Amino acid sequence: MATNNALQDIVDLMKKPDLDAGARLEATRRLIKIYYAVDDSSLTNNANKKRILEAIGASDSSSEAQDFFIKVLDSDKDEYRKMAMWSIDGPYGVHGDVIYDKIKSLEKNGVIARGLSMATLAKANPERAIEEIKEFLKTTQDLKEFVGVGLSLPDRYQGDPNVLDVIVDRYEDFKSKPIPAEYKGYTPEGALVYPWLWKYIDAREGKRLRIALEMIKNKGVCGSDDIPRLTKKIKSTNAITREATADFLDSQIGSGNLPKEKVLPILEETRNSEHDQKLKKKLGEIIGRHKKGGRP
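User: That's the sequence. What structure does it adopt?
Assistant: Structure tokens below.
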């Protein structure tokens, strides 16, 4: 009980954003001392050691914190190694090239799987990691890893269409393959959360825009607030973009996500100004169908 109370006091102290560097380092030293003082003989001790890793990983970027994490990563206790990897949290916590290089070394030596290492590399040094993450996303055939690594993209890259291209470009590849039973609940569109996907849609045209709209459709995350951005897309100079947006609006009226009284005027205006006769005819068919009550 005394250890639990002491540990909680230090963990609470380290959560203070205004804690000066000296006090933070001293708190880290106390936590490291507790970590090595307790054994693995009980679930409580096990949980406390993981709390220590989480506390230091999230809040101390000192060299002593790095050295401690290197030792844990090198240990033969896989559960603590995984907790250390999960707890690495730059830029305010444990991170940096020394951590990045250690993770790469463990991966190279087969201690940790490459897919598992990607999220940790991203936290250790996002600038170094991004090209490696993109290459992994381009080549992996494992849907679960694809989704997990996609979601682990560092914040600064989540809205960057040049980074997200690689996820969108792999979508149809994964979609064409059966999903293994053990991966139930995983889908290729799951590699992007919808705010990133909408930002991507705002930035892209053509085939990639079509794929991104299909991903949004499958996620079922579209509402009236998205009509202005879709209106811009259906007025694009790119014919593929216009047709893809028309198809998407058609599907969203049909599913009830978008009210037809708001969307039909947009489709009618587009049809009236459309110079591509094939698309003009298609727009007319969509409009006519929904005026009659929906899909056949």
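Residues 250 and 286 are 7 Å apart (CA to CA).
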